[in-house]
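Example for tutorial group B:
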Protein backbone atom coordinates (compact mmCIF):
# COMPACT_ATOMS: atom_id res chain seq x y z
CA UNK A 1 0.00 0.00 0.00
CA UNK A 2 1.05 3.57 -0.50
CA UNK A 3 1.50 5.95 2.42
CA UNK A 4 -1.77 7.91 1.94
CA UNK A 5 -3.79 4.68 2.05
CA UNK A 6 -1.87 3.51 5.12
CA UNK A 7 -2.51 6.87 6.82
CA UNK A 8 -6.26 6.66 6.16
CA UNK A 9 -6.35 3.03 7.25
CA UNK A 10 -4.63 4.05 10.50
CA UNK A 11 -7.13 6.85 11.11
CA UNK A 12 -10.01 4.50 10.28
CA UNK A 13 -8.74 2.03 12.89
CA UNK A 14 -9.72 4.60 15.53
CA UNK A 15 -13.34 3.51 15.05
CA UNK A 16 -12.38 0.80 17.55
CA UNK A 17 -12.05 3.57 20.17
CA UNK A 18 -15.18 5.47 19.07
CA UNK A 19 -17.56 3.73 21.53
CA UNK A 20 -15.50 4.98 24.48
CA UNK A 21 -16.56 8.23 26.16
CA UNK A 22 -14.25 11.20 25.42
CA UNK A 23 -13.53 11.58 29.14
CA UNK A 24 -12.04 8.07 29.20
CA UNK A 25 -9.90 8.73 26.13
CA UNK A 26 -8.53 11.95 27.56
CA UNK A 27 -7.66 13.19 24.06
CA UNK A 28 -9.51 14.57 21.08
CA UNK A 29 -9.74 12.34 18.01
CA UNK A 30 -7.61 14.76 15.99
CA UNK A 31 -4.63 14.14 18.28
CA UNK A 32 -5.30 10.40 18.25
CA UNK A 33 -5.53 10.51 14.43
CA UNK A 34 -2.01 11.97 14.31
CA UNK A 35 -0.79 9.13 16.56
CA UNK A 36 -2.58 6.50 14.46
CA UNK A 37 -1.13 7.98 11.27
CA UNK A 38 2.37 7.93 12.72
CA UNK A 39 1.85 4.30 13.75
CA UNK A 40 0.54 3.46 10.28
CA UNK A 41 3.71 4.86 8.69
CA UNK A 42 6.23 3.31 11.12
CA UNK A 43 6.55 -0.15 9.52
CA UNK A 44 7.85 1.47 6.34
CA UNK A 45 11.02 2.61 8.11
CA UNK A 46 12.48 -0.43 6.34
CA UNK A 47 11.70 0.91 2.84
CA UNK A 48 14.40 2.62 0.80
CA UNK A 49 12.09 5.61 0.37
CA UNK A 50 9.16 6.17 2.67
CA UNK A 51 7.06 9.08 3.83
CA UNK A 52 8.07 8.63 7.47
CA UNK A 53 11.75 8.85 6.55
CA UNK A 54 11.22 12.41 5.29
CA UNK A 55 8.80 13.73 7.93
CA UNK A 56 10.09 16.93 9.52
CA UNK A 57 9.37 18.38 12.92
CA UNK A 58 7.08 21.39 12.39
CA UNK A 59 8.99 24.60 11.78
CA UNK A 60 12.34 22.84 11.37
CA UNK A 61 14.29 20.90 8.78
CA UNK A 62 14.97 18.13 11.32
CA UNK A 63 13.87 14.67 10.17
CA UNK A 64 13.64 12.57 13.36
CA UNK A 65 13.07 9.30 11.49
CA UNK A 66 15.83 9.70 8.89
CA UNK A 67 18.61 7.99 10.86
CA UNK A 68 16.43 5.12 12.15
CA UNK A 69 15.12 4.59 8.61
CA UNK A 70 18.64 4.43 7.20
CA UNK A 71 19.76 1.97 9.89
CA UNK A 72 16.71 -0.27 9.53
CA UNK A 73 16.90 -0.25 5.74
CA UNK A 74 20.58 -1.26 5.82
CA UNK A 75 19.94 -4.13 8.23
CA UNK A 76 16.69 -5.51 6.84
CA UNK A 77 14.73 -5.66 3.61
CA UNK A 78 11.32 -4.06 3.05
CA UNK A 79 8.46 -6.07 4.55
CA UNK A 80 10.88 -7.83 6.85
CA UNK A 81 11.01 -7.59 10.66
CA UNK A 82 8.97 -4.39 10.94
CA UNK A 83 6.15 -5.99 8.93
CA UNK A 84 5.84 -8.94 11.31
CA UNK A 85 4.29 -9.78 14.64
CA UNK A 86 7.79 -9.37 16.12
CA UNK A 87 8.01 -5.81 14.79
CA UNK A 88 4.66 -5.01 16.38
CA UNK A 89 5.82 -6.55 19.67
CA UNK A 90 9.09 -4.59 19.53
CA UNK A 91 7.30 -1.28 18.90
CA UNK A 92 4.81 -2.08 21.69
CA UNK A 93 7.68 -2.62 24.14
CA UNK A 94 9.38 0.61 23.03
CA UNK A 95 6.27 2.83 23.27
CA UNK A 96 4.63 1.20 26.33
CA UNK A 97 6.53 3.39 28.84
CA UNK A 98 5.04 6.48 27.15
CA UNK A 99 1.73 5.57 28.84
CA UNK A 100 3.21 7.06 32.03
CA UNK A 101 3.66 10.47 30.36
CA UNK A 102 0.91 10.75 27.76
CA UNK A 103 -1.70 8.25 28.93
CA UNK A 104 -2.93 5.09 27.27
CA UNK A 105 -5.00 6.48 24.37
CA UNK A 106 -2.18 7.93 22.19
CA UNK A 107 -0.14 4.75 22.64
CA UNK A 108 -3.11 2.55 21.72
CA UNK A 109 -3.84 4.81 18.71
CA UNK A 110 -0.24 4.43 17.51
CA UNK A 111 -0.40 0.65 17.90
CA UNK A 112 -3.77 0.50 16.12
CA UNK A 113 -2.20 2.43 13.25
CA UNK A 114 0.78 0.06 13.19
CA UNK A 115 -1.51 -2.97 13.16
CA UNK A 116 -3.61 -1.44 10.39
CA UNK A 117 -0.44 -1.14 8.28
CA UNK A 118 0.29 -4.84 8.71
CA UNK A 119 -3.27 -5.80 7.82
CA UNK A 120 -3.25 -3.46 4.82
CA UNK A 121 -0.03 -4.89 3.43
CA UNK A 122 -1.37 -8.39 4.09
CA UNK A 123 -4.20 -7.55 1.67
CA UNK A 124 -1.72 -7.02 -1.19
CA UNK A 125 -0.41 -9.64 -3.59
CA UNK A 126 2.97 -9.55 -1.83
CA UNK A 127 1.53 -10.11 1.63
CA UNK A 128 3.73 -9.95 4.72
CA UNK A 129 6.04 -12.33 6.53
CA UNK A 130 3.97 -12.28 9.72
CA UNK A 131 6.22 -14.80 11.49
CA UNK A 132 9.50 -13.29 10.30
CA UNK A 133 12.16 -14.66 9.74
CA UNK A 134 10.07 -17.51 8.35
CA UNK A 135 9.62 -17.00 4.62
CA UNK A 136 5.91 -17.94 4.53
CA UNK A 137 3.73 -15.02 3.44
CA UNK A 138 0.52 -14.10 5.25
CA UNK A 139 -2.43 -12.79 3.25
CA UNK A 140 -5.68 -11.31 4.56
CA UNK A 141 -7.59 -11.92 1.33
CA UNK A 142 -8.11 -14.86 -1.02
CA UNK A 143 -5.82 -14.81 -4.11
CA UNK A 144 -8.30 -13.21 -6.51
CA UNK A 145 -9.02 -10.31 -4.16
CA UNK A 146 -5.45 -9.27 -3.39
CA UNK A 147 -4.31 -6.04 -5.01
CA UNK A 148 -1.05 -4.54 -6.18
CA UNK A 149 0.39 -1.58 -4.29
CA UNK A 150 -0.41 1.67 -6.10
CA UNK A 151 -2.94 0.00 -8.39
CA UNK A 152 -6.40 1.19 -9.36
CA UNK A 153 -7.80 -1.28 -6.83
CA UNK A 154 -5.90 0.49 -4.04
CA UNK A 155 -7.09 3.87 -5.30
CA UNK A 156 -10.66 2.55 -5.20
CA UNK A 157 -10.09 1.60 -1.54
CA UNK A 158 -8.83 5.11 -0.80
CA UNK A 159 -12.25 6.75 -1.25
CA UNK A 160 -14.20 4.69 1.32
CA UNK A 161 -11.30 4.95 3.76
CA UNK A 162 -11.31 8.74 3.36
CA UNK A 163 -15.07 8.81 3.99
CA UNK A 164 -14.75 6.45 6.93
CA UNK A 165 -11.97 8.47 8.57
CA UNK A 166 -13.64 11.82 7.84
CA UNK A 167 -16.91 10.59 9.31
CA UNK A 168 -15.10 9.55 12.49
CA UNK A 169 -13.39 12.91 12.87
CA UNK A 170 -16.56 14.88 12.07
CA UNK A 171 -18.56 12.73 14.48
CA UNK A 172 -16.15 13.68 17.25
CA UNK A 173 -16.87 17.36 16.67
CA UNK A 174 -20.61 16.97 17.23
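The residue assignment follows.
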Amino acid sequence: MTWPTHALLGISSLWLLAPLPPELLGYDLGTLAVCATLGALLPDLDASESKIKHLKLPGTSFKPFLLPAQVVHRTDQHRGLLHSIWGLAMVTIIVAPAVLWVGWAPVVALLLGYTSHLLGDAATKSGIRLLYPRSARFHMLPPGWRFTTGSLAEEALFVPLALFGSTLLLRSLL
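Residues 3-173 form one domain. Compare this with the pattern of hydrophobic and polar residues in the output above.
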